[in-house]
Amino acid sequence: MSKLSNKTIVIITFTLIILGLLLISNDYLKSKKEKAYEKIRISLMTTEDNTPKSVEKEETKEEPTPEPEKVENEYLGVLEIDKINLSQGFYDKDNKDNNVSKNVTFLEPSNYPDEKNGNIILVAHSGTSHIAYFKHLYQLNVGDRARVIYKGKTYTYKIENIYYEEKDGEVTIYRDTNKSTLTMITCTKNDDTKQTIYIAYLESVR
Predict the structure, then answer these.
(1) How far apart are CA 99 and CA 142, in angstroms?
(2) Which domain holds residue 23?
(3) How many whole angstroms separate alpha carbon 201 and alpha carbon 181?
(4) Distance between CA atoms of 185 and 163, rounded to whole angstroms?
(5) How confident is the model at residue 23 (pLDDT cuts 50, 70, 90)?
(6) Do 56 and 109 share a domain, yes or no?
């Protein structure tokens, strides 16, 4: 009878250990899921003054055709960052002007601002050209804020992480997938081999 009792104790102890290990591994996997990463392909080159020489020659012969004026209500949304005096619209994914060679670009993997726990991914050039909309992003620090105006609402985000990656055609986005995120990507100032990624989380909507 005593031996049977000891066996029972061993079985119960073993069962409890297994259950404990399962609970620990479940918590571990959950934490890993929350810190998931997304890998996206991106072509982002450092740009300086990219005005073609042929355009300069044409200007001496005939009056240049003015660029069509951007109408604000054609934009999908507007990115505003007070610290660097930035207020720039961006187009929807399928718009022909949603191109890094023309504007701040709303990347294809992006979610829309009103999607729960989504990720808005905005990309633009740095440098000195007329399309270097993110040329002052390097001045931002953790704790600074950015706003996205979308469908009449203002989404305010706080920068929580800034990191660098090699410029190799891919970017890995590390973010908490349980939070609505704004990701901004541009070339790193004074380093042609790297790009800078800014991760900001949603603070408020009004």
Answers:
(1) 28
(2) 1-34
(3) 5
(4) 10
(5) low
(6) yes
